[in-house]
Amino acid sequence: MEQLMISHNISEWFYLYNKDIYHFLVYYIGSSDVEDLVQEVFIRAIKGYDTYQKKSSPKTWLFSIARNVGIDEIRKRKRRRVQPMTGLWDVQADVATPEKILQLNENNRLLYQAIQGLKANYRDVIFLRGIKELTVSETASILNWNENKVRITYHRALKALQKNIGGFS
Amino acid sequence: MNDKENLLDIEKKIRSLPEPDYDKKFPKEAQDRIHENVLRFASTFEKKNRRLAKIKKFSVGLAGIAAFVLFAILIFPLNDDQSPIKNTGQQTEVPPTVDENEGNSQQDSENQNGTVDDPDPEKQDDTIDDSDTDILNDSIVYENREYGFTFTLPKGWENYQIITDTWEGISPDQQKIEAGSILLIRHPGWTEDIPRQDIPIMIFTKEQWSSMEQGDFHVGAAPIGPTKLGENQEFVFALPARYNFAFPEGYEEVETILEGDPLQPMK
Q1: Minimum-distance CB partner of B20 among A22, A42, A155
Q2: Which residues of chain A neighbour B4 with C-beta distances below 8 Å?
Q3: Which of B14, B42, B46 sits opposite A111 (nearest CB)?
Q4: What count of CB pairs under 8 Å joins A to B?
Q5: Nearest residue in A to B50, CA atom
Q6: For residues B85 and B197, what is the distance between their CA atoms, to the nearest angstrom?
């Protein structure tokens, strides 16, 4: 009975949030190759369904899983890049960057590169609050911060971004 | 443009970053494929969970049975512990030998190694002295020819059993250096469920007794040594210290018997 509930909920959540998660991961990872990661997010959700607290929103819960999946994937890709001369594949040739996927214009490309140049917690809050336009409360829930920290960090991230892009505006 | 406006402008630009073209990059077919994979995984996960739940239930059941068996193993020896045989502190690994009251005088004389005595006072002229019985008025006598002593018992002990065990003498450095026999006269009313107080009689050679008295070894864990009941030319007969430690049924009667100087040497 409980398992039927898991399948039912996961199925429903999949159709509600799979595009949001895909969108988030494309920006977070910096790659278009994120279909498997979307699947991984929902598989982890099934595995961790017991830990899902009904009081929290499934959206923020899935985004927090997606963020962890993204962090793991970035680490994995970094490790691959430091394996020299394997000759098996070429990461650079394989990856379609968000610039290509999203067909970013020059200004947006510079902005995206500036975001990627930020430190990790600034990037997190920019992706969630800025790009995904989640509320302070939702962002706080995903990052496990308090709302004040979200506000302050977001403000600082914007300032850092402003500084990085210089005369972009 | 002030700082606040600049930040709002950057936020606006961030929010204007385009979303992927889902129709091309993440089409419905791809979403359905992933959805199918996810549900298939959910189904496998469910089966695995059910299997684990069954194993868990089975393990819990098994653990319960194991706990019960362990409990039973622990409890039954504990019941045995109530027997004064072990409480004398002279038990050894060798299980005591027991013989029910089936014997006759011939068997008794055959059992001169002392491991089994089977006195049936009605049948055994050798073990029960009728004249003594008359004299002692409602008493019977257990006679042990191997070690040479008699032991007077009340009539109520008729059909008693003799159980033979061994005692061990432990040196101050915890080495087993001496051993000897210990006879237990067991009341006919003794049962495993309700054990009664046995009458233990330790057999020492004269040399062993002397050696023990000099502190060369001790018997059992009790801080005091056995109490001499009597002796003949070869052996000393003694009562183990704290023999009635568990105070089983009949221990008062045994105390009364022992107060009456029941053991008499034959040689």
Answers
A1: A22
A2: none
A3: B14
A4: 101
A5: A3
A6: 9
- B59-69 pLDDT tens trace: 888 998 999 89
pTM for the complete prediction? 0.52
Q: Per-residue pLDDT tens for B11-28?
A: 999 998 988 888 888 999
Q: What is the ipTM of this complex?
A: 0.85
Distance, in Å, from the CA atom of A19 to the CA atom of B241, rounded to the nearest integer, reads: 87
Based on its alpha-carbon atoms, the radius of gyration of chain B, rounded to whole angstroms, reads 39
Residue A112: is it exposed, middle or buried by C-beta count within 10 angstroms (0-12/13-18/19+)? buried
CA A74 to CA A116: how far, in whole Å?
Answer: 12
What are the pLDDT digits (tens) for A66-106?
A: 999 999 999 988 887 666 554 444 444 445 566 666 777 78
Nearest C-alpha of chain A: how many angstroms from B49? 9
The mean pLDDT of A1-11, rounded to a whole number, is: 77
CA distances to A106, A115, A130 from A110, rounded to whole Å, are: 6, 9, 16
**Confidence class for position A64, pLDDT limits 50, 70, 90:** very high
- Which chain B residues are closer than 8 Å to A35 by Cβ? 26, 30, 34
How distant is the Cα of B23 from the closest Cα of chain A, in angstroms? 11
